[in-house]
Amino acid sequence: MRRCRNTPLAIVIAPILICASVVLAQDFGYEGRHGPEHWGEDYARCSGKHQSPINIDLVNAVEKKFPNLEFFNFNVIPKAFQMSNNGHTVLVKMSFDEDTVPSVRGGPLAEKTPLGYQFEQFHFHWGENDTIGSEDLINNRAYPAELHVVLRNLEYPDFASALGQDNGIAVMAFFFQIGVNSTGGYEGFTNLLSQIDRKGKTVNMTNPLPLGEYISKHLESYFSYTGSLTTPPCSEEVTWIDFTAPIDITEKQLNAFRLLTANDDHLKNNFRPIQPLNDRVLYKNYINVDIDNLDSVPFVDAENAAGKWRPHSLAVLLPAIFVLVPLLRTSVFSGF
């Protein structure tokens, strides 16, 4: 007891202050004291030179012919599908048998590892109205929402060990556009959002759909660059693949996201402002389509490659190709 009484007050207080600083460092938001302009004060990497998101400037994008992207197990129904409101976003985790976890190989990822990247989670960013919401911009224009599918390099055993490593993480980004009908499984998905209306709530989907039902069906046209996570700790050396074909969502479904709350306030405008490109190169995938030889159209043959996901049929693909290829050559996209 005597030894405890003689302990300097500073020694007693120090651990408390350390614990408090750790708690504060984990508390980030999108406005006020813990908004994006202050992230670098608690997370040094958020002040790095290769941060995300960015403005995708079509004029300055460098055309590059990447290997074909291959998608495996994107048609596999997960064993469990958990949606949660973590106060920053709607986070979705899916569980699979070990040999049926969705993965991606090729494209910009081929330069990082021959093993490919495995699915970890997906989440969303959105705005309070239809003019803002996406994180990456196209020619300084925002979409109303954006989906991020987070992948882990299979050279690492888990997400924690891959985080912060060169080429350890990849993110596939998809933009949303308002439509009369929605893509894939978003009607059932957004119907469950009212059950996670407040921070900390979680719900399990009883009849989940495969991962492929939540992304775009046209995956040939994309941009790629090296960036970072768009939330703290803002780890860099993340490979980004931004697909140009948007996902359709209805106004009603998007409003279901806007009704979510975090810390008694609406969870809205949960997107980080764009960051300087600095010395990085933005690439756009070169699509070489010979309309006189339809066999040259790149798509996965599901019958001859077990587990690979066939994202589209030829009948759906061809109209998009005829419109898209001339636009790619001139770097003009009428949809942006």
Features:
336 residues; 25% strand; disordered C terminus; alpha+beta; single chain; 7 helices; twelve-stranded mixed beta sheet
What number of domains?
1
CATH homologous superfamily designation: Alpha carbonic anhydrase
Count of helices? 7
Structural class: alpha+beta
Q: What is the radius of gyration?
A: 22 Å
Which sheet architecture does the biggest sheet show? 12 strands, mixed
Distance between the termini: 71 Å
Can you name the CATH architecture?
Roll
- Name of the top-level CATH class: Alpha Beta
Find the CATH topology: Carbonic Anhydrase II
Oligomer: single chain
Taken from the alpha-carbon principal axes, the silhouette is globular
Fraction in beta strands: 25-35%
Low-confidence stretches: 1-5, 9-25, 290-306, 312-336
Mean pLDDT: 84
